[in-house]
Amino acid sequence: MSENRHTHSHSHGLVDRSIVRSHAGLRAVAISLAILAITAAAQVGIFLVSSSVALLADLIHNSGDALTAIPVGIAFFLRSFRAEKLAGLAVVLAIFVSACVALYETIMRFIHPQQLTHLWILAAAGAIGFIGNELAARVRLRAGKRLQSPALVADGNHARVDSYVSLGVVAAAIGVGLGVPIADPLIGLAITLVILKVTWDSWRLVATTEPGEAAEVRES
Ligand SMILES: [Zn+2]
Fold it and tell me: What is the pLDDT of residues 72-117, one digit of tens each?
């Protein structure tokens, strides 16, 4: 899209590098969003067959996650480190909200154990969610590290957190299937602790690292 906005200059200065970085960042955001869209579409298919409420909640969550990719994408599009810094903070906030939701759900499951049904369907949806989020996480983490973008790395961490949540759904379905219903809230608790750790790590990263600063040093 942005190719049309500026004629290509042949100076090899700061502007060129920032355009390359902007394109690579936008590409990572677009690819990971496409992967997550395919994942969500597959889960919609399973939801239509099973009408599982748990799956619907996961779908809503994943759609909301797309919103955190938008400020990251805009920051790359504007080539603004300041916007990128703010986008990173928004991503960390989203991970923290995920942690709070997971904690709330886990507490509710200890108090009112949920009756898990459609175990195979649940496990299949969880497996799809795990694969999709893990792939999106890898795209974002790889590009985020290469482009020295704390916001993109944090967004990758978020996708990885969601892949753990999906894996937890698979494990809970197996646990309940084996006649160990306590596995469901226990797995939820373990995942909540992991999300809290990821929230903290992502906050530290975004708060202490300036976007692109290391890349400038390395390339000069
Ligand atoms: Zn999420």
Answer: 999 999 999 999 999 999 999 988 888 888 888 888 888 887 777 7
Q: Other CB atoms closer than 10 Å to residue 24's CB: what's the count?
A: 16
Going from the Cα of 194 to the center of ligand 1, the distance in angstroms, rounded, reads 13
Q: Is residue 7 part of a domain?
A: no
pLDDT digits (tens, 9 = 90+) for 104-159: 888 888 888 777 777 888 888 889 999 999 999 999 999 999 999 999 999 999 99
> What CATH number corresponds to the domain at position 115?
1.20.1510
Q: How far is the CA of 152 from the centre of ligand 1 (A)?
A: 14
Cα–Cα distances in Å, from 45 out to 39, 40, 181, 210? 10, 9, 27, 41
Cα end-to-end span (Å), the chain: 28
Q: From 117, 107, 129, 115, select the one nearest 185 (Cα to Cα).
A: 107
**pLDDT number for residue 206:** 92
Ligand 1 centroid – CA 134 distance (Å)? 12
